[in-house]
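Hello,

Following up on my earlier ticket. Below are the two sequence lines again, exactly as submitted.
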Amino acid sequence: MIELKNVSMIYPNGNAALRNIDLTIEDNEFVFVVGQSGAGKTTLTKLLIAEERVSDGEMYINDFKMHRLRRYKIPKLRRSIGMVFQDFRLFDNKTVYENVAFAMRVVGARPSEIKKRVPHVLSLVGLANRAKSYPDKMSGGERQRIAIARALVNNPDIIIADEPTGNIDPEMSKQIFELLMRINKMDKTIIVVTHDHNMVNYYNKRVIRIANGHIVSDTPAKSVPAASERTSGEQSEGGDEQ
Amino acid sequence: MKLINTFFFHIAQGIKGIFRNPIMSTASLLVLVCCMVVTGTFALIIDNINKNFEALDDVNKMIVWLDDAPEAEEGEESAEEQEYNIHEYDKKTEDAIKALGHVVEVVFMSKQEAFEEFKESEGSDAEFLDWFDAEENNPLRASYRITFASDTDTENIRYIKKAIAEMGFNEENIDENIDLYDNLMNVKGALTTIALWLLAVLFVISLFIIMNSTRLGLHSRREEIQIMRYVGATNSFVRAPFVIEGVVIGLVSAAIALGIEYYLYTQVISGVIRQYQAIVIAPFTNYLVVLSVAFAAIGVFAGLFGSVISIRKYLKV
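Thanks for your patience. The regenerated structure is below:
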């Protein structure tokens, strides 16, 4: 569970990026975080991965007290969170397999574990047959799938996707969101920071809107099925791969 | 098993890092090699001076000659004999000399013994000594031969000389090698100073280059490091390859420096010194272990220190 109690974040230059935020995200929830540029979405993401520290208030992620988190505990926290970025952040000189394996390698996983886990995760994201390809020869959607596989490979509890569809076309975007939905069903908490209102409206999920460092609305998932669910039969792709 | 895997992963990453910035790695390596070779060469020369110092019998020895007793006319004593009244072996004098600080041995050599020793040293050329007789007309003088401890300095030798003269010996009859001793000490001191300065300057330069090499490595791998951080790599995991890179450069430099030093010592320095037959030169094997350890220590320390400074300065994990 993620819990923020009266959290403020003020940068050293005096800019208050977040002010008195109260927020709870339950385990296995799917949450969209939306807002204009500079609203505080990225700062919220940075707080979640301990890249920035709260200036005031209390923040908890599972067993971690983020407002008092010791430096040496940060790697352990980050192993429980998978990050997906708008710009993918892949190694073009490494194959798809190596990119994903790298995330396991740096947390000290055994080669035998890596050999077992990476093909499984690649098949989950629909890239089983592209393991030996290089990212720079692949489409934006495929590249983002590699990034999602990398975020997923260490089996984190939470996936944070920062503008995951910002650099890809609408059709591919839909596939990425479908993939994130499927991962959510694997008991993972998913937080998607996005500007893509079409997608937010399309899926019936909780939406947190931030403006000027405040949460201005927190809309829970509607009880009526969303457009995505009404058309799930047409949209799903490889849905049985779990 | 996990630790071993991680260890070999770091080693591989560290070695890859060396080839990622070949120019800076080569520069670090060359300066470190120079640092080690210069220091090693000076150390070997200084040690050989010390060895020759010890081999030169006369340097830490003093000879106190005993004049023959003057044949004074009856009833009168010469003024000289009144002042310098020791002309023969005396146990009390020997003990008094032995009691002086830094004296490790006192040997009395009688006129006869001196004659025999001289005759022996001349070998087949000693025919001219047939004119003399050890008892009757022996031209040589008796003496006390004093040996000092190896750490005796010129001040101590001067003090001993004065103390012996005060026992009743003519100061002109006391032979020592203070000037030679001084000269050798001066040469040794100058070489040590030069070596230490060169070591310091070259070490600082090599540290600076290793720091910059690490900094370049950090810059070229900044995206990789960022991803490592996001997926939960520990600080030590991120830093280890850079430290290993520095240490490997240090160890490779040490190995190259040892090879160059071997060539320099056995071919160049020994070749030059062999022209002076009186000078003894120690075999390189005497220094192999100590040089290997010293070079490895310099290399590891420079690599470790340089990379750690750079990491602490430029890598915020």
